[in-house]
């Protein structure tokens, strides 16, 4: 009884649990499958490489599979999951620490405490998310710390990076969280960043999620983005993210004229430019055919102080240069040349030229032995303001002029400077005519220095221009006595700093080497056009919309005004009263309205008639390719009747010259009789050809004929001069009256020129022109226009 009650009590419980067991079992099975799938991710199997393979093999396999399974190129439904697995496998194997953990423990985890969570995956709309793959910002243990030292902030970028970009280019990456492509390019970015940083390229990283203001300031609207910064100008990288493309991108940022190729033919000219450029010249001898990127970056950093040349020692034509300076062709050699080009001022050789070595070498040779003061910045660097007693620097300035007359004094001053080089002394010279205010501050109007050179010893006291100085009592001639006097003054200055008893205030020097305003404006315009061109093809269209809107609005207003003006002129012309129009007609054809009353209503716009000769040169343009709706009215004449007929023709057609659809020409019968007779064969026996040879056939007189030729529709109308008997009323053969046509068809030939009055040949041509514009004349169609020749 008790057992039965117990069984009855358990019955409902068992019935309630029965439907839930399959659901729990299904959840457990799915969870186990997911965990097993995560644990079974073998990066070697995914990439198809063996365990002992090199990094080059891993990278090669990853590139091949990434191209094959990229979701943008592979439309397979599982391409996205496969692509993520490939990326994850490459992330593990490209990192030596993760690869070692996987080989040792079968897992790439970095910490034991995190191992319980790193197998947690997210599935969302077919995309695979893995916390260890995305480096979540709240998971600081898993974030990559290699970019932290390159992170940029807005104030740091504006105040430090932009000014520094005038000394070296910067390569900046824009990244963010939840960015697949950011992780894909990470290995290449790390490699290139480390390589370029050693060469002197600035590296920066901007996190768009934390530095939105800076990302917007840079113009980056998507991640990842890579850009270059040089001279304050931003240039975006648009190619595939590989090492070679990034190196070439940085190299293209640099100006193209930084380093000059030097050979036996041009090395004297190159080294002799020190006087014109006021800079020492540097030569690098190396066995590489192309200029190394390190050398280009160095030339950019020191471009304001030094000029750079490159000698490829393996090139034929550099043997004399290498022999003269005793160059070891197997070791890179760098030489600095100053005022003397026959021997270098300083030399450095090293099998592996490092940036630090080059910087130390060049920083000690930035100036000439007796540099010319050409701008204020150079004056401040050569003669700095004293801050402490031990930092005193005195400048010995030669005030001279250009020309052979003063060259001897300059050479003597240069020799003295080379012999007395010290850290506390700087020797410089200046041209009085180019810096007159500087020279007048020391010499004034003293007559003993007129037309001669002078030497001044000075010390800058503050940045406002105050200096203490001492001028040599006599003009500098460069003699032995002058050398002893100057040397004695320098010895007194070393023992007694108050020796410089005079003081004055100097104004800023003129920038002698600055380009003219027009040249600066031209280069600025070119840079602006280049920026606009680059923005047009590569910038975000959302950013370009305001500029495009402004451009199209201006074009719309411009062309709208022109079109409205054109229609206004047309309406005014239509409203004008008809000129010399005596009657109207309703016989005009509807399919050819270009020669209607509107054309006739135009009054003459010129005081003359423009008549051109129809020749083989203008035949196509004046007839064959004549625009639709236009006609060419051609007068037939000969050499003997040319003057008389042209005068009469001009009088008859003058009132019709206001029509823009009519053109007027004349054809010389002596040159093109065959062309005319061929055309007249289609004019309904207007020019009949006799059955038998007629000796008078070639003497047929066509002078005074007028043809209205429509080149587009291939037809013509014909005006024939009236015969003497019909002077009173005949209009010509192109009219609807066919009596004259049949009369001549019966064999009556035209009269000779001697028997016909020339002044009556074009009688009533104006009436024929009226009917031509009305469209009531008979038209003679031809299959094609014959060649005029």
From TrEMBL:
Mode of membrane association: Single-pass type IV membrane protein
Main location: endoplasmic reticulum
Organism listed in the record: Nothoprocta perdicaria
GO cellular component: endoplasmic reticulum membrane
Biased composition (Basic and acidic residues): 571-592
All residue ranges annotated as the J domain in the record: 42-106
PROSITE patterns for the chain: DNAJ_1, DNAJ_2, THIOREDOXIN_2
Protein name, as recorded: DnaJ homolog subfamily C member 16
Matching Gene3D superfamilies: DnaJ domain, Glutaredoxin
Assigned keywords, A-Z: Autophagy, Endoplasmic reticulum, Glycoprotein, Membrane, Signal, Transmembrane, Transmembrane helix
PANTHER family in the record: DNAJ HOMOLOG SUBFAMILY C MEMBER 16
Record's function text: Plays an important role in regulating the size of autophagosomes during the formation process.
Taxonomy of the source species: Eukaryota, Metazoa, Chordata, Craniata, Vertebrata
Stretch forming the signal peptide: 1-39
Subcellular location: Endoplasmic reticulum membrane
Recorded superkingdom: Eukaryota
